Amino acid sequence: MDCTFQRAEPTPLATDLNNEECVPKHVAIIMDGNRRYAKNNNLPTLQGHWKGAETLIEIVIAAKDLGIKILTVFGFSTENWERSDQEIEALFEILRVFLISQRPRMLSEGVRLQSIGNIERFPLSLSKTLQETEQLTKGGAVITLVLALSYGGRDELTRSFKNLLIDYNKNKFTLDSIDESLIESYLDTKRWPDPDLLIRTSGEMRVSNFLIWQMAYSELYFTEVLWPEFLPRHLQEAVSAFQKRSRRKGK
Prior knowledge:
The chain is of the alpha/beta class.
């Protein structure tokens, strides 16, 4: 992959936007390390989550400046429901406030908000705020921010296969017509291409049930940096590492 840094930003973000192979169009991030950040800085756990929310909007803008078109982030997993009721309620309030407070910036920066996951268990007020924000930002044409909420890769596949079976029983397609493309049309992510790059912060080196179908050929990048300390330059480092890899996809 031949990539030459040509473009400079106010922050040290630069990449060759003239070569489409140089910029991952779809980046997925597992935002890990909020609680460790709080512990390391002698802060209440919730302060780590608040700092993580502040980091998110800055990384969205940095991704936009790099030319990334889709940013999918792991906001709340199916496994997170096992946390304490107090922490879950606090996380939902942080998300609600984030969605409302960042609407003006998302609109000015051309950010379109969308979501994936099974949010039926979410409080009505949060679901309403999410839907309102998606509606308000639907005209954003620069970058799409996808929030994975109450999301798990296995849960997504389970839901998708159930819906596929329902349609099969309605004779909407034959057994022989079932292929990867048909399965993908039942996934939450059917609107977007698969991630080119997955970034996980905090030093953990696993995908944790995130986009397990979609990441079959994604490049994986792990960093020791905790999510609340993840800066635009760290995003550039991940993109730079991506640019140096050869994506043969088995060919």
